[in-house]
Design brief:
The chain is of the alpha/beta class and 420 residues long. 42% of the residues lie in helices and 13% in strands. Strand 2, helix 4 and strand 3 form a beta-alpha-beta unit. Helix 2 packs across helix 10, helix 5 runs parallel beside helix 6 and helix 9 packs across helix 10. The chain binds L-rhamnitol and zinc ion.
C-alpha cells in the first residue's frame, strides 16, 4: 500500500489552491445516508412462502452461484457487504421480503413480519426504507393500482396502506425517517384506446392510500415513473408526466418524485432534470442505477452520469434534501461485489462532486466568464480525488482500493460456495 497520509496531504494542498476544504468534503460525503437495496442479494426473489418468479417488466439476468436463499443468508450477505461500504447507510427493504411461518398475502402484511429487519437495523444502528411490492404476484398481471377490476385494485390499495403503516413502524423503531418508494409496473404491450382511464384509477388509488394513512408519521413517499417495461412497451400508466403531475398537484411535503436513472429515454438524463424538479419540490428520491441500452439495472458505475448527478446535487445545494438510494440487480457477478462496487461508486461520486470550487464557478458564471467556467469544469475532472477517497476509506476502515476483493473471494469460497 502506498503512503495514504502523504497522498492525502498532497491532495489537500492541491485543493487548497482553489479554497476547497477536503475535510469538510469528507465529512459531508460520510454523513449523507445512502440507502442500499436488499434485492441485489437474491435477484429480487423475496422471502414470501410462495412459488413464482419476477414479473412486472423488470428482469435479472445471470446465474452466478451463491445467492441468498432466506432472510438469514440475505442479512449475512448485507452485513458482509457493509464491511466494504464507508459512510452512513440505510437498508431498503421490499414488502416481498416479509418473513412469516405461513403464507401471508400482500394485503395482510403487518409490521411484525419485518421484525427481523428491524432487529438487524437497530443492531447496526442504521435506518430502514421500504417499498410496496406491486409486482411478482398473481394479481399483478392486469394492472395493480390502476386495474379495471375493482377487487384487484382494492387489494393493491390495501397493500399500499399496510406499507405506509409498516413505514411508520420502521421510523418508530429506528428513529430515522423511512422513505417509501411507490412503483407500479402497470402498462400495456400495445398502445391502448383509453389512455386516461387507468391513470385516473391510479390517481384515485394513491389518493385512497394517502387518505387512509394520513396520520402516519416519519414517512416520505416517492412516486416513481418509468418509460416502459419488458412486455409493457407501448404504454406506462405511471409515466413521468403522470407521476410529476401527481406529486406537484398533491402539494404534500411527504409526497415527492422518485427519479430512477434507468427510467427515461436513452438520451434523457436524471442529472438534467434535478434543477427543474427542485424548482417546485423540497425533496427528491433518487434511484441510482445504470441502464445499458434499456432499464437493465446494471451495477452503478463511476461514470459521467453518476458524477453529473452528484455534481448537480452539490451545485444546487441539495445534498441534504435528496434521498439517495441504489436500485440495481446483477445476477451475473458475485452479489456482494455488486453491492460493494455500486455503493462505493455512488459515494465516491458524491465525494468527487464535493471536491469542486462551486462558489468560484458560480461567480465566474454570474460574471459572464463562460470560458473560465468551462476551463474550471474540465480541470476538475482529473483532480486527485482518488487520494482523498482512499484516505477516507482507510479512516473508515472499509478497505482501501481493491482490498475488499480478497475478502469477498474468501467469503465466496467459505460461505457462498456451500449454498447448493
Ligand atoms: C423498476 C423500478 C423499481 C424496482 C424496485 C425493485 O423499474 O426501478 O424501483 O427496481 O422496486
Ligand atoms: Zn427504481
Amino acid at each position: 500500500m502506498y503512503d495514504l497520509q502523504k497522498g492525502y496531504e498532497v491532495a489537500k494542498e492541491f485543493y487548497a489552491q482553489y479554497g476547497i476544504d477536503v475535510d469538510k468534503a469528507i465529512e459531508i460525503a460520510d454523513k449523507t445516508p445512502i440507502s442500499m437495496h436488499c434485492w441485489q442479494g437474491d435477484d429480487v426473489n423475496g422471502l414470501e412462502l410462495k412459488e413464482g418468479g419476477l414479473s412486472g417488466g423488470i428482469q435479472t439476468t445471470g446465474n452466478y452461484m451463491g445467492k441468498a436463499r432466506n432472510g438469514e443468508e440475505l442479512r449475512a450477505d448485507i452485513k458482509k457487504a457493509m464491511e466494504f461500504i464507508p459512510g452512513e447507510l440505510k437498508v431498503n427493504v421490499h414488502a416481498s421480503y416479509m418473513e412469516a411461518d405461513t403464507f401471508v398475502d400482500r394485503d395482510a402484511i403487518e409490521p411484525k413480519h419485518f421484525d427481523k429487519w428491524v432487529d438487524f437495523a437497530v443492531e447496526n444502528n442504521i435506518g430502514l426504507d421500504f417499498n410496496p411490492t406491486y409486482f411478482a404476484h398473481p394479481l399483478s398481471d392486469n394492472g395493480t393500482l390502476s386495474a379495471a377490476d375493482e377487487k384487484v385494485r382494492k387489494f393493491w390499495i390495501q397493500h399500499g396502506i399496510k406499507c405506509r403503516e409498516i413505514g411508520e413502524y420502521f421510523y418508530k423503531k429506528t428513529g430515522k425517517v423511512c422513505v417509501i418508494n411507490h412503483w407500479t409496473p402497470d402498462g400495456d404491450k400495445e398502445f391502448p384506446v383509453d389512455t386516461i382511464g387507468p391513470r385516473l384509477r391510479l390517481k384515485d388509488s394513491y389518493d385512497q392510500i394517502f387518505e387512509a394513512t394520513k396520520n402516519v408519521e416519519g414517512v416520505m413517499d416517492g412516486i416513481e415513473s418509468k418509460v416502459f417495461g419488458i412486455g409493457l412497451e407501448s404504454y406506462t400508466v405511471g409515466s413521468h408526466e403522470f407521476c410529476m403531475g401527481y406529486v406537484m398537484k398533491s402539494n404534500k411535503d411527504h409526497i415527492i418524485m422518485t427519479l430512477d436513472t434507468g427510467h427515461y429515454h436513452p438520451t434523457e438524463v436524471v442529472s438534467a432534470k434535478l434543477g427543474a424538479v427542485y424548482a417546485f419540490s423540497d425533496n427528491v428520491l433518487l434511484h441510482v442505477s445504470r441502464p445499458v441500452r434499456w432499464d437493465s439495472d446494471h451495477v452503478v458505475s463511476f461514470d459521467d452520469e453518476t458524477r453529473a448527478i452528484m455534481d448537480e446535487l452539490v451545485r444546487l445545494d441539495k445534498v441534504d434534501k435528496t434521498y439517495i438510494a441504489t436500485d440495481f440487480f446483477d445476477a451475473a457477478i458475485n452479489r456482494i461485489s455488486a453491492w460493494a462496487i455500486g455503493m462505493r461508486n455512488t459515494r465516491k461520486a458524491l465525494l468527487a462532486a464535493l471536491l469542486q470550487p462551486v462558489e468560484q464557478m458560480k461567480k465566474l458564471e454570474a460574471d459572464g466568464d463562460v470560458s473560465a467556467r468551462l476551463a474550471f469544469k474540465e480541470e476538475f475532472k482529473a483532480a486527485p480525488f482518488a487520494l482523498v477517497w482512499d484516505y477516507y476509506c482507510a479512516k473508515s476502515n472499509k478497505g482501501v482500493g481493491l482490498e475488499w476483493l480478497e475478502e469477498v473471494r474468501k467469503y465466496e469460497k467459505e460461505v457462498l460456495a456451500k449454498r447448493v
